[in-house]
Amino acid sequence: MYRFFVQPQINVATQKLAGYELLLRSSHHDYWVTPTNFTAVSMAQQMVLSHREITNILRDHPNNPQISFNLNREQFNDQETIGHLISLKKSVPGLHLIIELTEAPSLSEVHRFAALYKAYDIELSLDDVGTDNPWTSAVREILPFMDTIKFALQNFRRQHRQSEIHNSLQTWRDVADLYHLGLTVEGIEDQSDVALAEKYRAQTTQGYYYSKPVPYCG
């Protein structure tokens, strides 16, 4: 059994809700856990599950908060997946949909598919910059096609690279300015992390300081 949990994303300027990231979970011995294989759930099934959560969210929030949905590189390039996302976008009036790319596609892949997403006002965000998606020529080439980038504090902590956070965050702030990208900082755990995000002019924050991923209940 699968369902989507949600984690709120916060507008740094107002400290109010900006949106939610949808995070897939599977039931295992009466607990909800992160699936070991996300592709085990068909994209058609994921769309049914996500549609249920999104309609509930937008019912309760008439200001249409943004909804973030994760894709890996293979899913980004899959025409059937793109079709499902376009159908989802068309079926939910006013849906502000952001695709978070957990793996950077190649420039040729972006050239081939990005226009399909953009044609339906589906935004693209490169996830985990500085860690899973470090600064490389391949990443640099696709940044003009992104709308936002996402910097994960928790990845640096997990890799025992806390001493690099300030310099890396400054680098990606400069990148965001250069390419006119929004910047989200996730892994916010306390007020000092909020201050860090403010210092580097992040537009959006996310993390356990606000809420762990939970079932949406309004």
UniProtKB/TrEMBL annotation:
PROSITE patterns to which the protein is assigned, alphabetical: EAL
SMART domains reported for this sequence: EAL (SM00052)
Pfam families membership: EAL (PF00563)
GO molecular function, one term: cyclic-guanylate-specific phosphodiesterase activity
Domain EAL residue range list: 1-218
Superkingdom of origin: Bacteria
InterPro entries linked to this entry: Cyclic-di-GMP_PDE-like, EAL_dom, EAL_sf
Database matches in PANTHER family: CYCLIC DI-GMP PHOSPHODIESTERASE PDEF (PTHR33121), SIGNALING PROTEIN YKOW (PTHR33121:SF70)
Protein name: EAL domain-containing protein
